[in-house]
Write a structure and sequence with these properties.
By secondary structure, the protein is an alpha/beta fold. 45% of the residues lie in helices and 25% in strands.
Length: 286
């Protein structure tokens, strides 16, 4: 196994579809599938089960992901730092979760354009951002607020409530608002434990005394929408994201609980302050 295969595997694990992962990696679907089969043969274990609904990790696949993801991030950091040392460039590297980057891409690129700095935006998961900051690999990142104590300082830049995204003929679609408890018996499509959107929703479900039924874990938005449109599950999404993805025959139903919300912002280690160019970025966004 090499770093390329590790990157292919982690992207497929987080995306859960060959097409979505191949698009992110800028490779063919056939090339990605071949690489994963070769990795499974080398490890002598099945990492995914394949179906028409996408790729579902096996227990071995989840174990492998949890161990290889931090190692891959460390390797990528080393490669970045070697380049910086070689070029002697003034550069700030900011890890961003996919959803956060989706909402803040324009102001981030405007900052890059108007400041004499080389800003590198690294796409990862919310938990990936948190690991990089806590591990000292990066000084500041951008992600969704965690519902749990993380040892990180959080400064909010963007706020939007959650909505339930479902077919317009679904029983719950008749309601003006719903409670979290209304989803007790419905299958849910969500992004998985690497994303704080899912962790926030799960935390609210547990407070209501139930564990949600999972139809699919996938950070791939197009797959979430497709499954919801097929009636396979209800997608729980930030309203701002759902608004951009509305399709015919689908509705967004808000939650009664106003604390069920998606907050995107800057994070850095608790007890510290951003320095130099990172403080400039914080001032720009805040």
């Amino acid at each position: 196994m090499d770093s390329r295969q590790a990157k292919y595997f982690t992207t497929l694990y987080e995306t859960r579809t060959v097409r979505g992962a191949a698009d992110k990696l800028f490779i063919s679907q056939q090339g990605l599938s071949r690489s994963i089969r070769e990795l499974e043969a080398e490890l002598d274990v099945q990492l995914f089960t394949r179906s028409s609904r996408g790729m579902t990790p096996t227990r071995a696949g989840t174990y492998f992901y949890e161990r290889i993801r931090p190692l891959l991030e460390t390797f990528e950091d080393i490669c970045h730092n070697v380049t910086l040392v070689r070029n002697d460039a003034e550069r700030i590297e900011v890890p961003c979760s996919y959803g956060a980057l989706f909402m803040l891409y324009r102001p981030l690129k405007e900052f890059d354009r108007t400041h004499d700095l080389d800003v590198s935006l690294e796409q990862t998961t919310d938990r990936g951002v948190e690991r990089k900051i806590l591990g000292g690999q990066r000084e500041m990142g951008i992600c969704a607020r965690s519902p749990f104590e993380t040892g990180l300082e959080f400064r909010r830049v963007y706020l939007t409530p959650f909505v339930a995204f479902m077919r317009d003929d679904a029983e719950l679609a008749k309601k003006d608002v719903i409670r979290v408890d209304d989803l007790r018996d419905y299958p849910i499509v969500h992004g998985g434990p690497e994303y704080n959107t899912s962790r926030i929703f799960f935390d609210h479900c547990m407070r209501c005394g139930f564990e949600p039924k999972i139809a699919m874990e996938t950070p791939e938005l197009t797959l979430s929408l497709r499954l919801a449109k097929m009636g396979e599950g209800i997608a729980v999404l930030p309203e701002a994201v759902a608004e951009m993805c509305s399709t015919e025959g689908m509705v967004r139903v808000p939650f009664e609980d106003v604390t069920l919300r998606w907050e995107v912002g800057l994070v850095w280690k608790a007890g510290s302050k951003p320095s130099g160019a990172y403080q400039q970025l914080a001032d720009w966004l805040l």
